[in-house]
Amino acid sequence: MKKKTSVASRLYMLLILLFLYAPIAIMMLFSFNSSNSTYVLSGFSTHWYREMFSDTAAMDALKNTVILALCTAFVATVLGILASVGLFNSKNKLYKRAMMTATNIPMMNPEIVTGIAMMLLFVFAGALVNKSDVLGFWTLLIAHVTFAFPYVILNVMPKLKQFDMHVYEAAVDLGCKPVNAFFKVVMPEILSGIITGCVMSFTLSLDDFIISYFTNGPSYQTLPIYIFSMTKKRVKPDMFALSTLMFVVILVLLILMNVAQNRSDAKGKSDAK
Predict the structure, then answer these.
(1) Residue 148: Cβ-neighbour burial (10 angstroms; 0-12, 13-18, 19+)
(2) For the whole prediction, is pTM greater than 0.90?
């Protein structure tokens, strides 16, 4: 009976993985198609990868997206670390619960609600200072940081709870300044959580469409919005090539993140022994 259940569960997982990754595999396959057909393979070619790099509009959108994602990851990580340390050191349990609940709202809230709310906020703020073209890079950055930095908190807080604060207190008692003690004692122990939160912030910002759609302006276009504008006509296979490269980069980042997480867990277990 257990053997049948095990076989059924493996088959179920295989079907789920096939359903999730078959479209990506097909997209990657057609990125090497020699023709511009999206349903007939005519031969193997890297033509669309060369075509992708010659598309100025797509490259500008990609550059904007990467810059925005890097800025979002940096700001969200810094704010997430500060918020995590502040919440961890808070002695008021009611305040801590309230703040953690407020932190979870951007993750649980539908993106379309967050996007519309942020757009109305930015337009209202622009009206107060008599500025009509308020939407642009800075509004995108604020919106992306808003939904990204809670993920940093959720990754850093467990690491702080695992850390023995007596080590930090001992470093301060021995003459180390609190700031130096944090960077030399606490930071190495929570580094894996920081890296995980930073990579998550980067990837979330990289592929966000709904919130970006409502908070961007004509002066700053991200890649998801650029691809969406192409769907009104026809998506060319060079977008398949660009999406394939982005998928590979994110996959490599996730692998590195998991390796760092596993090494940190292994180090924690060895230190515990």
Answers:
(1) buried
(2) no
